[in-house]
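Below is how a single chain appears once it has passed through the pipeline. First comes the sequence as given, then the structure the pipeline wrote out for it. We keep one example in the README because the format questions we get most often are answered faster by looking than by reading.
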Amino acid sequence: MKRIILLALAALPFAVQAQDTYLNDRATNTSDVIGTARYVGMGGAMGALGADISTISNNPAGIGLMRRGTISFTLGGQINDAKPVFGDSRGSFSFDQIGFVFPFGDVGDDTRLNFAFNYQKRINYNQGIFVSQNLGGLSQGDMFAWIANSTFQTNKEGQYYFASPFYDNLYQAGFFSEFTNVQGDTYFRNTNAGQTGYYYRNSSGSLQGFDFNLSGSAQDRWFWGVTFGIDHMNYKHAASYEEVGDDSYILYQDQKLKGVGFNVKAGVIVRPIEDSPFRFGLAVETPTWYALKHTGLAALSVLNEQGKYTQASYMDDDNYLEYNLYAPWKLRASLGSTIGNYFAWDVEYEYSMNQFTKMGYPDSDNNYHGSSISMSKDLAMNEMTKANIRGVHNVRAGFEVKPIQQLALRAGYNFFSKPYKKDARLDQTCNTPAYDWSTSTEYINLGATHLFTLGIGYQGKHLYVDVAYKYRVQRGDYYSFDDHFTTLNESFIDENPQLAGQMLTPTEVNLDRHNIAATVGFRF
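Resulting structure:
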């Protein structure tokens, strides 16, 4: 029997795309708090309090409360809870924020105007995971064969070919083979009975935001702000999937996702009672329109019966897919107040409409899918997103206490609800061109996120220094592949009646991490 083993660095590469609902969510889901150390120390709960440059992306009206100019920069560090694998480092440093606020001063009766710019990291992608899963006789190859059954065609010479170059290469490499049933129908099947699947992924890069803000105040009771944001995405990961069974193999992938996005954020803060510091804030963030480019490599080598490696597949590595992503609307409401000059608190709620994330392509002449002014929509992928993704609720709270005027102590908490529905799965049978070169089969259904933060700060006449600690807690259910072929693929059920209806037991993944942030600023 042919034994297939992937040797990650020895095999020839072929181009790969694997953009899907899960990758899009991984690249854009901002279930974190990153910014100045004061902002982080209060758990990002400053939408009603304002007066911190990091509110530029949460509630732009918060910049309108600033009466003095300021410039600040923030450095951060991260340590993943999970143990490193293959020599990876658990920790990394990052440049999290730099920005300034320039006040124009009074521009009319009780009216002030500010201009601000801020660079701020939105998502830190640096994380490594390693999981093993008991496959119970199921195989990733069974899923590949299931998809091959619905995508193969026959040319004039009677040879099989597939819509996806990746599947054509798998077939040529002997990863799955065809057989004919008693009715004379041709099916494809895989011969591997999987025992254990080992998955490793090391991701890096970040989603960076560049925000330009115009804000102001009137009568020291009405504050407003508008922020124009430009996002820069730089996501990459190296991953491998090793399956141990009758025929053992490893599938190695190296993916990159880069591009830019644009959004607008607007907000207000109101003090409804003239002689009370109590205030409330409202903000809205428009969808972010991303123009993205996805590239990648995968490697497959075959060990034949003579114990020699032979070339399994080859495609030029300059293939890529350009696509557009429409990230969701976000709505925010907040309450906050102060007691004298020694205590401040803030409570906020945000709703992110992640289930309405849409994917499409810049080619408006694509007749395969519905079209819009900005892009040809990938209807199948968008339906899968709605079927799997929930709207995310975020509740955050924070406070600051000053035992003396120069010293501030802070604490905060964040809760982000589960982004995936109970029965979410990566359905690779959906009719989308994004899967034409797809090789990724694994997916992780993420759980709720909890953030616990602490902070301390020193305020001089002009110089200020803040430090914050954040503990981010999140777990996820890992699946090596979509296992629905055990109930939907008739050929698999006929050939493997003992495995009919068997499903993978998810493996819990630890995504916890610790962060520190330090900000140095100057007020003028």
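The CA atoms of residues 84 and 90 lie 6 Å apart.

See the next section for the split statistics.
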